[in-house]
Amino acid sequence: MADRTILRISGADARHFLQGLVTNDVERLDQGLVYAAMLTPQGKYRADFFIVPMGTDILLDVDAALAPGLKQALTMYKLRSAVEIDETDLTVARGLGPVPDGAYADPRDPTMGWRAYDGRQGDADVDWDAVRVAAIVPESGVELTADSFILEMGFERLHGVDFRKGCYVGQEVTARMKHKTELRKGLAQVDMSAPVPVGTEILVGEKSAGTVFTQAQGHGLAYLRFDRATGDMSAGDAEVRLTQKG
Fold it and tell me: Of 68, 129, 159, 235, which is the most buried if we count CB atoms within 10 A?
């Protein structure tokens, strides 16, 4: 996948270094892929990625557009840690169905298939947008932006955050949101009567109820104000209806 970059974290402090920075428990690497994010100190999204066990090293499978910024942020936090952060020429293969030998199950949702880093070919002709929309999985640079809070984007449901692991960058804001009675805004799946441009505002009458993003096969992912998304909505010329919160 040309839209992904694989960073390598090596050195004696690799696990300890990442553990203090990312939203998930790095010790889960012993069980397979770990999905996590790195946040700003204000608790907003900086990048999401898969953490991959690779012998004594750790790989980060990240959106290629976010890789330079992520590497820069990791380097800033490195200080005197015994770690090296390098970009590799490894590639990602993806597929659906049973997980092949040497591949890893996508930890976000069982329907998201598997990922591999050994040079094999992935499944061709998969409509990954349709798979994501069905599973309510956000994408870097589309639903996930610099203004995103990960709990509103479904990271708890997608196994991307651990509330027992201890401190990490942005942890305090995330913990406060967790202990609210209910999130007022968040990612959801909607039915769409017709496709519209990504970023089209969703309206209830003349009031804004959110924004529609990825669409596939008559459905879409939308960021909604849940108090307003209770009936018929519109986005451009399309009729919109909430089907499932993320």
Answer: 235
Pair 235, 229: CB distance under 8 Å: no
Please identify, among 159, 178, 197, the residue that sits at the C-terminal boundary of a domain.
Answer: 178
81: helix, coil or strand? Answer: coil
Report the pLDDT value the prediction gives residue 230, as an integer from 0 to 100: 87
Burial pattern 125-164, b for ≥16 Cβ within 10 A else e, equals eeebbebbbbbbbbbbeebbeeebbbbbbbbbbbbbbbee
Find the CATH number of the domain harbouring 44.
Answer: 3.30.1360.120
Binned at pLDDT 50, 70 and 90, residue 68 comes out as very high
The full length of the chain comes to 246
Report how many domains make up the chain: 2
Domain that holds residue 206: 185-245
Q: What residues contact 55, with CB distance under 8 A and at least 6 apart?
A: none
